[in-house]
Input
Amino acid sequence: MPEATQKQPIQWKWVVIGIIVGFVIIGASYFIVAPKFHSDAIQSLVLLVGFVVTGAVVGYYSPGVTIREALYAGLILMVILAIGFALMGSGESGHGTVFFLLLVLGGVLAQVGGWIGEKLQGSGEPTSAEARATTAFQWKWVFVGLALGFALNVLFVFLLAPVFNISLNMAHIAFSISFVVTGYIVGVKSPGVTLREPAVAGVIAVLLEWLFLQFAISLPVPAEVITFGMFEGFLLTLFGAWVGEKVQLAMEKSEEAA
Output
């Protein structure tokens, strides 16, 4: 989780960048999702994922450790969105749940995204040679893969589907591709060999998505579908991670030869 103490001063430039990026990501997500999905749960989920993505962008692209910057950007975005929903008449429009969840969770999820971005950037991570010397299971990369995979699953299904008007079968393909992309990102960005970690994350992501479907939007999913989804998530994320590891090794050899 985020480091408890950071001695460097806050980089307000990245707070401002985070606010701008988040406003674009979260705002665009809302106007894509709202006309197609009238469920408060789905709208809330997509917007909250937007906070994670915002924090990840700040954490990944900014130099140094900028987890606090992601948090502050998320908190300011919460205020902006709160004002926006208030002007829209959140209570009268049926957006009360969305309004409440954004206020409660937005800043925290932006900070989580910042931590994920820092890990993908390599901040505080051992060198690849050091990481390859150990075979210990790294739970932090399970968490990174889980957050990243869950976010990509949501974005691929609930944003790409409405934008391109794709069918249910194509939505499943997009859902499957998001697992491969998740595994690839973790494999290519994490030092050492991290194949098991994203694969486990893929399984947990499917379970979380089942909980959302079952209890948030009351959409029962047969047990055999969940079982197949877990198996699919494991294999596709594992495959993506394997490809990512191959690319990482090729990049390392290229740098050594240069």
